[in-house]
Amino acid sequence: MTTVDPDTAAPPTPDARACGDSAPGHRREVPAGEAEGSGPAAPRPDRAGSLRAATPQARPRVAGDPVKALLHRHRELCERAVDPLEIAAGLEAHGITDRTAARFRHRDVFSLAEELYARSPRGEAPAAAPALVPAGPAAYRRFGCALLPGALAAGAAAAGQAWAGPAAVAATVAALVWPGRAAGSRFPWLAHLLAAAVAGWAAYRYGTALAVGLALAVGPGHLLAAGFAAGARARLDASRALEDFADRVRPLLCAVVGGFTAAAAAAAAVAGTPLTAAVPIALLLFLTRLLLRHGSRRGPVAAALALALIPVPAAAPAAAAALLVHAVLALSRASAHARP
Fold first, then answer.
1. 208, 164 Cβ separation under 8 angstroms
2. In this predicted model, what pLDDT tens digit does every residue of 10-55 receive, in sequence order?
3. Backbone phi, then psi, for 45, in 5-degree steps?
4. Beta pairing, strands 51-52 & 44-45
5. Residue 88 to residue 103: CA distance in whole angstroms
6. Cα–Cα distance, 338 to 131 (Å, whole number)
């Protein structure tokens, strides 16, 4: 057997050096920083002898933007809103709750509305939220119109006019039930006619004094309804969740209803009509005005007014109680207090 002297052995050829990594028994030294699992992947030769960089591991696909789809679905609402609160009220009207907002990666509807408002396309000068301003001539004019039915009815009754009762009924219905806006932007003819029928039927049963008492309650009802609208809007500005707003506005509604009940009782006492007959009807008309003013559905309102037309003494109190329950549920929603 021939022995090869390592000192006299020929140096390896370039081809042998190129293939030395795959030769058995050969161990390639790995430079520092290229250990397995550390540092960037080093370029390696492919079969054609050219170098190519190792591609990094592909990233997982990012989920789609759910808020973008919601923005497209409610584009008109988001573009015409003057503040995020209007968007929150509109979303709630479409059935989106705080629990639903979690699917859009938000803690509540108000947070979701803020993102929708920020991402909505607007003009160069976006509209600012209207600030609170003192009562102007229009507010005083509306209050004067609310005092007119009571003054007209009391004057006609004191003068002994035969038309005092019908005039008081007409003025009461026109001032107390006239809505600022109705659901679907349509005038609620049925509710208006049923309210006139309820007031007329009560005046026919209990006399002109009851109609005068209803007319005298129009002024306090106007003030309390305006105060409730302003107070609910302020609570909407300070709320951060739908449940929070409902908890804030329900005591306000109960206070307003209690205040109107006291005012209606005082008006009935001044007119000289029984409180048990006048107060439930006045409260029924006041709740009708509130619900129609805040865009509530007209079905429950019409059903309560129709119930009050049943010729039994307990019909009017039962109708007022049923409409009060509906008002507590409907007026504690943020969508009932969006700006018209």
1. yes
2. 454 444 444 444 444 444 444 444 444 444 444 454 444 444 444 4
3. -75, 140
4. antiparallel
5. 16
6. 15
Hey, which residues does 44 pair with through a beta bridge?
52
Report d(CA 143, CA 155) in Å as an integer. Answer: 19
Cα gap 106→115, rounded to integer Å: 9
Which run of H or E residues covers position 295? none
Asked if residues 20 and 27 have their Cβ atoms less than 8 Å apart, the reply is: no
CA–CA separation, 112 vs 87, rounded Å?
9
Residue identified by tokens 């035969």 is: 162
Q: How many Å apart are CA 216 and CA 219, to the nearest integer?
A: 7
Nearest to 82 by CA among 141, 41, 33, 123: 123
> Which residues partner with 51 through β-bridges?
45
Lowest-confidence region among 60-69, 150-159, 190-199:
60-69
Taking the C-alpha atoms of residue 209 and residue 154, their distance in angstroms, rounded to an integer, is: 9
What is the Cβ-side half-sphere exposure of residue 273, based on CA atoms within 13 angstroms?
A: 29
| Residue 126 zone, left/alpha/beta (φ > 0; ψ -120 to 50; rest) | beta
Give the H or E element holding residue 51.
strand 51-52
DSSP H stretches of helix in the chain: 14-18, 66-73, 75-80, 84-93, 98-101, 109-119, 137-158, 164-176, 189-206, 208-216, 218-238, 242-271, 275-293, 298-308, 315-330
Task: Report pTM.
Answer: 0.67
8-state DSSP, 162: T
Burial of residue 121 (number of CB atoms within 10 Å: 0-12, 13-18, 19+): exposed
